[in-house]
Amino acid sequence: MCHALAIKQRANLIFATLEPFWLQTVKLTNSSLLPPPKRTKWLIALAAIAHDLVQDFLPQTSSNLSRKRESGVSELASIDKVTCYIQILNQQLIRCQPDSQALFSDRDLKIIKAAIEATICSYDCLTHSVYQPYLYGDREQILLPARILALADIGGLGMEGIDSFLREGSLLFLEENPDTIPLIRHYYQQPDDLPVESAAYQSLRQRLLKRSRFQLSFARGRLASFPREVDGLPQEAITALKTEIFSHLNQKTLTQLQAITPQAGGNPPVHLARVFRLPPAPGLRPGKNSTRLALGQLGRSSREAMAIFVTVPSQKAARIVLLGFRIGTSIIHCIHLSSSVTTPLYGTR
Q1: Conformation bin of residue 287: beta by default, left when phi > 0, alpha when psi is -120 to 50
Q2: By percentage, how much of the chain surpasses pLDDT 90?
Q3: Nearest Cα to 232, choosing from 88, 102, 117, 135?
Q4: Residue 199: which H helix or E strand, with range?
Q5: Which residues neighbour 188 within 8 Å (Cβ) at sequence distance 6 or greater?
Q6: Closest of 309, 155, 315 to residue 242, by C-alpha
Q7: Nearest to residue 168, comparing CAs of 4, 283, 348?
Q8: pLDDT at 115 over 60
Q9: For the packed helices 199-229 and 181-189, what is the interaxial angle rounded to 10 degrees?
C-alpha cells in the first residue's frame, strides 16, 4: 500500500474512533464550523491523498549525501496543486451541475489546506526527532480534521507496530537516497564482492547507520509527544485512541525496537539494510521484463516504487511513469469520487 493510501486508512481509523464523541469533540476543539461528519471524513481523505503530491528536494552539493527537503515547501506546493485541481473541477460542475453538493466551498478548501499544513514536520535538535508545529500552536486554532491527518501521517509506529514503522522508514530512506539503490542491489546479488574500502561503501554504511539511530530517536519522540498532540480532545476519546488505535505506542514497543536497531558503527550495510526491510522485493528479478514489472506497480506511490527499483534496472523510465500516475491519477480519482455524489450524502454546504 502506498504512503498516501496508508495515511488515508490511518486517518479513517482515527476518525471512526472519534466519531462517537463527535459533538463533544467539536465543541471542545472549537470546530463548530465544520461540515457534517460524512463530508468532513471525505475532506480528510482527500487531504491524505494529496498531502505528498509534490516532493521538492533542495539542490544536492554532493552525490554521496542524502537529499534534503526544506520544511513546508513540498506541502505548500501540494496545497497549490490540489487547489488547482479542485478549482478546475468546480468550474466544470458549475457549468453542468450548478446545484451539486459535490462543489467544494471555501470552507472545504480551508479544511484541506489546514490538514495538509498540519503534516509539515520540523526537526527537534534536543530530542533528535521530528514534530508537527501545527499541533503545538494555540489549541483553539487547531482544526479537528488537521489534527486527525497529522496524527495519521507520522503515526505508523503507534498504530501499526514495529514492522510497519521500519518498512516505512526504509521507503523514506530510499526516497532520500536514490543513489544507494544500485549499491544495495549489488550487495544482495554479489554478497562476497563488497568493496569495503570504497567511498560509496562507507557512505552507504554511514547513511544507513544515521537512519538507524534516527528511527530510534523518532520512536522516542512519538511516545513523548503523543499526550501533547491529543490534548484538548474529550478524555473518553483520548482513552479510546490510546487503547484501540495507538495501542503500540508504549514503552514495551520502544524496548523491542531498541533491541533490534543497530546503533554501533561496525555494522555492514547488508546487515543494516536487512534490519530496515531493504532486501529486493520478492518475486522480482532483473531482466527483459523488468520495465513491465515496474509498470505493473502503478498503484504505488513514488516512495514505495523506490523500493521496487532495488531490483528493477530500468529506473528512469519506470520512475517517470510512476510519478506521472501518482500526480495525474490518484488525486483526480479521489476528487471524482466526491464529485459523483448528487444526493445529500454530505449534508448542506
Answers
A1: left
A2: 50
A3: 135
A4: helix 199-229
A5: 270, 273, 279, 280, 310
A6: 155
A7: 4
A8: yes
A9: 110
